[in-house]
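Problem statement: downstream parser choked on a complex file, so we are re-checking the raw output for the 5-O-phosphono-beta-D-ribofuranosylamine run. The parser issue turned out to be on our end (a line-ending mismatch), but while we're here, posting the original submission so the record is complete.
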Amino acid sequence: MAKTINVGTLISGGGTNLQAIIDATGSSEDRMEDKIDARILFTGSDNPGVKGLDRAQKAGIDTFVVDYAEIIKSCKQGVDPGLLPHDFDMEEILEKQQLVTSDTASVMSKDRIEFFLKSRAIAEKKLLDHILAYDIDLLVLAGFMRVLTPYFIDRLNTVPGQYRIMNIHPALLPSFPGTDGYGDTFRYGCKVGGCTVHFVDYGEDTGPIIGQKSFEIEADDTLDDVKRKGLVKEWELYPACIQKFAESVR
Ligand code: GRF
């Protein structure tokens, strides 16, 4: 029997993956046989008013919002150095980050890269102020549509070599990283699609793979069919990967 782990969750939208995880933790009392050894302590969102927040509240889970769009908008008037976390070190973050690669760096000015990293660190510090008030074993990104910079990741992954942030991606990585995995899979003409749960490292969708599930794409499938088939697989895969993590924790 695995230890019951404490999980925090971050979302951006509808939260159907969050719902699958809530159900699997037994919070909804109706699927006890599939119960995983995890309890959800909070759900945070970068987006106010999304359905996933209602799902969490209904299950009695604490919620919070860090409004990224608002923060980024206010930074566009000029980043107030007073808002930057006191332990933010641009040189260190630039050296570690793998979000802006040599390809993208050629079209992004140094100022834009630094604006990106500073504005995200301001938002990430606000996330951390909420998250670090809880004692979590694992942070689960359940449709959280923001990349995380090394500033944030290093404050969760405090033991070298031990990953503590998990993400679900709507494609069979390493194919089709980025924001539209199912769309990219469909447009490429793939006959098989899938989803991947992986740990988060400094790159975009590059961390170690924990689990994958695939499905057939039929000749007459539309993009909506692909998304529907994919989500059904995601709802099975994510709880199973969280359970795998719980079983690995002594
Ligand atoms: C999922 O397809 C997930 O793979 C992607 O965003 C979507 C979130 O869906 N990262 P939901 O909010 O869990 O319904």
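For whoever reads this later: Strands lie at 5-11, 38-45, 62-65, 138-141, 165-169, 192-199, 209-216.
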